[in-house]
Amino acid sequence: MKAPLLTAAALTTLTLGASQAAAQDCVAPSGDPFELDAAAVAEVYACMEAGMLEGYTSGDDPVAPVYRDWTVTATRPAVAGPHGERLLLTFANETAAEQYLKFETEGVAMPAGSVLAKESIKLGEDGKARVGPLFIMTKVASGEAEDTDNWVYSGVLPNGKPLSFKQSFCHDCHAGFAGQDALAYPVEEVRVGATN
Ligand code: HEC
Questions:
Q1: How far apart are CA 161 and CA 58, in angstroms?
Q2: CA dist 58 to 20, 48, 54, 140, Å?
Q3: Which of 17, 29, 101, 153 is 20 to 30 Å from 132 at the Cα level?
Q4: Which atom of ligand 1 is found nearest the CA of 117?
Q5: Does the pLDDT of residue 13 top 60, yes or no?
Q6: pLDDT grade, residue 24 (50/70/90)?
Q7: Is 36 in the pocket of ligand 1 (CB under 6 A)?
Q8: pTM summary value
């Protein structure tokens, strides 16, 4: 796959039409995805979960089989504008979790070895929910990826194959979260530890 244009809309096109999970025919709740309540989200997620994991792990990506054992950073998947208006749920590995879960906005410096993996589910206008890519950010040692603040971006398609794109495609947007070491964090209402 060629690197798409640098737009949030381009991210939408990364969802494969015929994924294994889609074959289960999970129904996308009708209405505005931004207004979904927790129960509606839980229902879609429960339907998608097993097929999603099966798809991500059907290739040889090293993160796919392990990220589910990491720390979940939100109380439920939620839709954010970027990443193609998908339901998103981010997991942080052991190196990343402590700092990530503070959701700090200034002076953040993630330790090398930090990995964030984010599941995505596309709610189609045709009423079906489909698995989107697993998006991954890995913090490497200082100097190893200077152009991208030592983050390496990768991704796994719903069929287990690697997502291909230019590093700048991801980082040009993530770099905007400057004081947060390029991390964007889940939407506030679902962050683990947020006012509940
Ligand atoms: C147009 C802006 C934009 C682009 C392009 C983009 N992202 Fe993101 N990314 C975000 C936002 C906003 C979030 C937080 C949304 C959420 O998780 O609810 C996020 C969250 C993430 C996370 C969870 C860690 C964090 O930042 O909190 C990962 C991992 C991630 N993106 C990987 C990628 C990868 C890999 C690419 C390229 C294929 C990419 N992103 C492209 C905006 C973008």
A1: 8
A2: 10, 16, 6, 26
A3: 101
A4: 29
A5: no
A6: low
A7: no
A8: 0.90
Query: Which residues lie across from 121 on neighbouring strands?
Result: 87, 131
pLDDT band of 15, cuts 50, 70, 90:
very low
Nearest CA to ligand 1 atom 9: 184
One-letter amino acid identity for 182?
Answer: A
Q: What is the Cα Rg of the chain in Å? A: 16
To test ligand 1's pocket by mutation, which of 99, 135, 185, 188 has the most ligand atoms within 8 angstroms of CB?
135
- Where in the sequence is the domain holding 135, given as residue range(s)? 8-190
Residue 180 placed within a domain = yes
CATH number of the domain to which 175 belongs: 3.50.70
Q: Per-residue pLDDT tens for 62-89?
A: 999 999 999 999 999 999 877 777 999 9
Residue 123 placed within a domain: yes
Residue 155 counted as domain residue:
yes
Supply the pLDDT for residue 150: 98
Say how many domains are in the chain.
1
Residue bearing tokens 């390496």 = 152
| Of 102 and 193, the one with more pLDDT | 102
Q: What atom of ligand 1 comes closest to residue 185's alpha carbon? A: 27
From 13, 83, 187, mutation site for ligand 1 pocket: most ligand atoms within 8 A of C-beta: 83
Nearest ligand 1 atom to alpha carbon 78: 18
CA distance 65 to 87: 20
pLDDT at position 195: 55
82: CA distance to ligand 1 center in Å? Answer: 7
